């Protein structure tokens, strides 16, 4: 029997009308969900997939990075209507602080619905390559540790959840960062681009595929067609 493989999709922002590089219209997103359903793709919580047990055929996980307010205003009603699950990768420094970001109350409501899992996207979404280039080795190591541990502890404290997953900002990771993530208590890490995920994927750099705004339905179909064959 062939080993299971899954497709992990990445979104960022949602808008009723406008699309952009990281913004998908709600109508386009719903068309994509309809396509997945029509082609017998099953949306499964990311936490279930990474265990690699009893993976259904054509399994798809939906992840959403950053924590933009449109996750609550635009995406969440769709999740409620369709009863599908997503994982949000959040950098908590923005929550209830930045005008574009979700609030802790919104995150708490979504988590309690059972439709949303919240995990870490570091504390403030740094570019680790730039940080390493401008800091001493000791300062950089301390900075990385802060980004990883502060995000995890704050999300757990505010939402009463267990944070075991990390999405790397800008998809930047390396062996040193992976080792730091493991020391900070993360079991799984996720890249920003790649192909299908499978049991032999690097557990701290599991591939995901970003879905950009403006992508036609045929373009989306080409993106996800392989696991749905």
From TrEMBL:
Q: Spell out the Pfam families in the cross-references.
A: Polysacc_deac_1
The chain positions of domain NodB homology read 58-229
Specify whether Signal is a keyword of the entry. yes
A biological process (GO) of this protein is: carbohydrate metabolic process
Could you tell me one molecular function GO term of this UniProt entry?
hydrolase activity, acting on carbon-nitrogen (but not peptide) bonds
UniProt keyword terms in alphabetical order: Signal
Q: Where are the transmembrane segments?
A: none
Among its keywords, does the record have Signal? yes
Going by the entry's taxonomy, the superkingdom of the source organism is recorded as Bacteria
The text of the family note is: Belongs to the polysaccharide deacetylase family.
Q: Which PANTHER family match?
A: POLY-BETA-1,6-N-ACETYL-D-GLUCOSAMINE N-DEACETYLASE, PTHR34216
Please explain the role this protein plays, according to its UniProt record.
Is involved in generating a small heat-stable compound (Nod), an acylated oligomer of N-acetylglucosamine, that stimulates mitosis in various plant protoplasts.
> Can you say what this protein is called?
Chitooligosaccharide deacetylase
What is the source species? Acidocella aromatica
Please spell out the taxonomic lineage of the organism that makes this protein: Bacteria, Pseudomonadati, Pseudomonadota, Alphaproteobacteria, Acetobacterales
């Amino acid at each position: 029997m062939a080993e299971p493989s899954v497709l992990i999709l990445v979104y960022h922002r949602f808008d009723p009308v406008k699309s952009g590089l990281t913004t998908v219209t709600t109508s386009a997103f719903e068309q994509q969900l309809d396509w997945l359903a029509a082609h017998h793709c099953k949306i499964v919580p990311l936490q279930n997939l990474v265990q690699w047990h009893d993976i259904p055929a054509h399994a798809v996980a939906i992840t959403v990075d950053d924590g933009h307010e449109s996750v609550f205003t635009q995406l969440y009603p769709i999740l409620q209507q369709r009863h599908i699950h997503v994982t949000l990768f959040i950098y908590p420094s923005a929550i209830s602080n930045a005008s574009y970001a979700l609030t802790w109350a919104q995150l708490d409501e979504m988590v309690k619905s059972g439709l949303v899992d919240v995990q870490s996207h570091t504390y403030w979404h740094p570019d680790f390559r730039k940080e390493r280039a401008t800091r001493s080795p000791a300062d950089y190591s301390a900075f990385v540790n802060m980004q990883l541990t502060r995000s995890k502890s704050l999300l757990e404290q505010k939402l009463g959840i267990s944070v075991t997953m990390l999405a790397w900002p800008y998809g930047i990771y390396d062996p040193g960062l992976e080792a730091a993530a493991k020391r900070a208590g993360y079991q799984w890490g996720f890249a920003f681009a790649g192909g299908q995920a499978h049991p032999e994927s690097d557990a701290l750099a599991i591939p995901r595929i970003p879905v950009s705004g403006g992508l036609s339905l045929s373009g989306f179909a080409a993106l996800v067609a392989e696991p749905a064959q």
